[in-house]
């Protein structure tokens, strides 16, 4: 039974999220190394098992979709963790995506992260919104 409460991220988890944010915003940075060899990606419309190679192929399309929707800077506004055991932690993260001449867009995700000997890896990546639909609809 999980008896912990949601807390601020542990230092290693905070550093991992910082690295995720950095790699997600720098065009030449490789975010795929932060994921397990296969991981589950979910949103309200779908659930799929991916590999980092498949993710890499989708990232440029996602960046293009954000650019086409007028999304500017994306900044993390909050992060919390729920320690499940010595190796696994749920991390809930909120971001604000700036948009020209419009209210910012709020993006929310939850990760299931495993602490591996060579560093944390994302096992489950849950987007709480169908991002493609959100951007297409104009949010």
Task: Give an overview of the whole structure.
The model has no long low-confidence stretch (mean pLDDT 88). This protein has helices at 11-25, 52-68, 131-137; strands at 35-43, 46-50, 71-83, 88-99, 105-116, 119-127. The protein has one domain (11-137): Nuclear Transport Factor 2, Chain: A, CATH 3.10.450. By secondary structure, the protein is of the alpha+beta class.
Total count of strands: 6
Give me the side-by-side strand order of the main sheet.
2-1-6-5-4-3
The CATH topology annotation reads as Nuclear Transport Factor 2, Chain: A
The gross shape turns out to be globular
Can you lay out the helices and strands and say which pair or pack?
Elements: H1 11-25, E1 35-43, E2 46-50, H2 52-68, E3 71-83, E4 88-99, E5 105-116, E6 119-127, H3 131-137
Parallel strand pairs: 1-6
Antiparallel strand pairs: 1-2, 3-4, 4-5, 5-6
Task: Throw out a few tags for this protein.
single chain, 139 residues, alpha+beta, Nuclear Transport Factor 2, Chain: A, 3 helices
